[in-house]
Amino acid sequence: MMPYFYVVTDCEFDGPIPGKHSMLSFGSVAVSQTGEVLSEFEAVLQPLDDAENDPVTMAFWRNHPEAWVAATENAQPATSTIQSFVAWIKSFDAEPIFAAHPISLDGPWLDYYLRRFAGQPLFEGPWVANRLFKYAPLCIMSMIAGTTGRDYWRCDVQHYPAEWLGAVEHTHRAIDDARGYANLLSFALNNRKAEDHR
Question: What backbone torsions phi and psi does residue 25 show, to the nearest 5 degrees?
Answer without folding.
Answer: -160, 160
